[in-house]
From TrEMBL:
This is Trimethylguanosine synthase. GO terms for molecular function: acyltransferase activity; RNA cap trimethylguanosine synthase activity. May form homooligomers. Interacts with CREBBP/CBP, EED/WAIT1, EP300/P300, NCOA6/PRIP, PPARBP/PBP and SMN. It is found in: Cytoplasm; Nucleus, Cajal body; Nucleus, Nucleolus. It comes from the Eukaryota. It comes from Rosa chinensis (China rose).
Length: 251
């Protein structure tokens, strides 16, 4: 009886000590959150900053939407590796450059379209940090207006999911995508090439995704990949046409 009590006391003392040891690190991180002016909405993403950009500390810039919508680096690398033989990749919703940087790192030429000029400035800054700005043509503009004049081997679509609230719906239907529904986005891309990659929420309605293949005749091949970071499901990448078969070459 006496022995049991003393071992319990020892356990309690040890756990108190480990709490004390964690304190300086937490304080340092909290201080950085304040110094960098991180808003409560993006605080959670700031703690994952190195998953988003491994070179974050070298001067990476993101605005609020950029924080919650950038593709985590390991996922962007994976998506880029799947385009091995392509010469020109068009990133139609480029944001702060998470995907464009990884496509360019694989030595493709990238056309990066983004409607918000402030994000384009951030993307240029971020691409410079990764040393790939010379491989990317940044265009400030509306993808839907530019689409008829674009040429490329692969079209990459990472449209807005409507903010962090996408998680609240049980099934994310394609009409929830912005700035137009998933069918309209896909059709604009198809006019450029059938080799399309789409990055979608983890709760996307997969039956609707399959329907996209039937917008083409014969229907496009497709492949669905779940994307995890640190064991957490972050999204779903769908590869269509030649991108599904990993056979995208210059057209
Ligand atoms: C999900 S984010 C892209 C994130 C990007 N893949 C990254 O890793 O940084 C979607 C982006 O599409 C942009 N956008 C919205 N409508 C657009 C349009 N019509 N044409 C081009 N870009 C648009 C938004 O400003 C936003 O930055």
């Amino acid at each position: 009886m006496k022995t049991k009590k003393s071992s319990k006391q020892r356990r309690t003392r040890r756990s108190k000590r480990s709490k004390l040891l964690q304190l300086p690190t937490q304080t340092h991180e909290t201080r950085r959150v304040i110094e960098e002016g991180v808003s409560p909405l993006v605080e959670k993403y700031w703690f994952q900053r190195y998953d988003l950009f491994s070179r974050y500390d070298e001067g990476i810039k993101l605005d609020e939407q950029g924080w919650y919508s950038v593709t985590p680096e390991q996922i962007a690398i994976r998506q880029a590796k799947r385009c091995e033989n392509a010469t020109v990749v068009i990133d139609c919703f480029a944001g702060v450059g998470g995907n464009a940087i990884q496509f360019a790192s694989m030595c493709y030429h990238v056309v990066a379209i983004e409607i918000d000029p402030l994000k384009v400035n951030m993307a240029i800054n971020n691409a410079r940090i990764y040393g790939v700005e010379d491989y990317i043509d940044f265009i400030v503009g509306d993808f839907f207006q530019l689409a008829p004049s674009l040429k490329g081997d692969i079209v990459f679509l990472s449209p807005p999911w409507g903010g962090p609230s996408y998680r609240r719906v049980k099934k994310f239907t394609l009409d929830l995508l912005e700035p137009k529904d998933g069918y309209a986005i896909f059709q604009a891309a198809q006019a450029i090439t059938p080799n399309i990659i789409m990055f979608l929420p983890r709760n996307v309605d997969l039956l609707q995704v399959e329907e996209l293949c039937w917008l083409s005749s014969p229907p496009l091949e497709f492949e669905i990949e779940e994307n995890y970071v640190q064991g957490n499901l972050k999204g779903v990448t769908v590869y269509f046409g030649g991108a599904a078969a990993s056979q995208c070459g210059p057209s």
